[in-house]
Structure formats: C-alpha cells, structure tokens
Design a protein that fits this description.
256 residues, alpha+beta, six-stranded antiparallel β-sheet, 5 helices, 6 strands
Length: 256
Amino acid sequence: MGWGTATMGTLGVVTYVAPIVLGLGLKLPIWIAMTIMGVGVLATVATVIMSRQEAVAARRDLVTAEQAAKAAAERARGAMEDVLTVLVHHIGEIVSANSKSARSPLQQQMKLAIVSLTAQLIGPENARACVLEIAPASPGSPGVREMKCLAGLWMGRAEAPRTVFREDQARGASLLKLMDDRKSTFVENVDALAPELRPETDSYKTYITATITAAGKDAFGVLCVDAPNPGDLRKEDIRLVEVLARLLGAALAVRR
C-alpha cells in the first residue's frame, strides 16, 4: 500500500470517528473537545484536497499514456511506411529489368528482404522466417514434388530449417496442398496436431504459413514464420504474413 493510500485511509477514519466521539455526550475537557473537532475538520479538508490531487494525477497519467500510445503508433506507422517504400522501389527495379539475368538477382534480393522483415515484424525476437520452394525432384523419386528452404532463405534463430517436405509424406502433402490451394494457415500449438503432421524437431511449437502468390494465380512457394513457444504468434499475425507473401509474389511474377 502506498503512502498516499495509507494517509487517505487514516484521514478517512479520523473524519468518520471525530463527530461520533463528540456526539457521545462525554464530559470532556473543553480543550480536548476542541482538539477533536479541529482534527476532524482538518481531516475532512485534507481528504478533499488529496482526493482532488489524486484525481488530477490520474488524469495526468491517462493523458501521458495516451500520448505515449499515440507516439508509438506514429513510430510504427513511420517504420512501416519506410519498409513499404523500399519494397515498392525494389519491385520497380525488378519490373524495369530488361533481361532475366538482370532480374533474377533482384528477385533473390527481394526474397531475402521479405524473409528478414517477416522475422523482424512477426512474433518475438527469436522468431524464424523462411521461404520454402519447390526443389528439384530426387533421382529416386521421379514425379514426387519436394519443398524446402533453398539458398539460405531464412532469418531469425541460429538453427536453420532443415526439413524437406515430400509430397508422398503427410506433412509434405499437407503443405503442398496449402500452396496449391493458395491458402494460409496458423497453428497455435503443434502438439495439438495429428502425430503425422507434427514437426520432427522441438525447436518450434507454433507457426504461420502463407502462399507466395500474385493475384491468386501462380504459386511460388510458401512464406513461413515459426517460434519456440505457443502464444509467441497470434492469429492476427497471419494478415501481415500474407501481405508480405503477396508482395514477394508480385516481384516473382515478373518474367518478361
């Protein structure tokens, strides 16, 4: 209990008790009766003053909190505008490139930029983001699609994503269907999944995946972000992951 609260409580008791004592009709010396009366009056005045002070302080704190929230929102909006400006400029460079040899490095840079932003903007500091793409078919499994993280397209935790998602396995089939359907998904806790769909590692417990596509047409893979603990990611985060995936899809759709 703070000093102000304790003082208010004491003054309240004095304010309440003083008139009761005087009203008992006790034969008290005049100086004692006057002292009790004086203390009661002072306690009443002090209680009113402190109440007003606390009300003013509460309003001041509210204004300060609102100002801080407004400043934080403005900083976040400014940072997002800066990010989008860079990405739009980068897409413009890709569109303006007059050959595949000039365009391909720019598209790869765009992938790295999107992965980095996803890891920074979504979830906690130890969130990890990656782009999963269709890999060349294994010699022993012709016709079976595989998806994995190619060319170091990941950012976040020190542990690189190593899983290869094969179409002839449950997890791979599920991920490839999500990409084929141009959809996204959020898994709050991998332990709630069916056993055959759970990750092979305990390095993450929650994840979001969004198809990298341009206007819902071509699919170029999936953008993923994962985190170590349930609750690190939220369902609301999926919207931003989808936006970043579509920006990347727009950059990859340029083929002329």
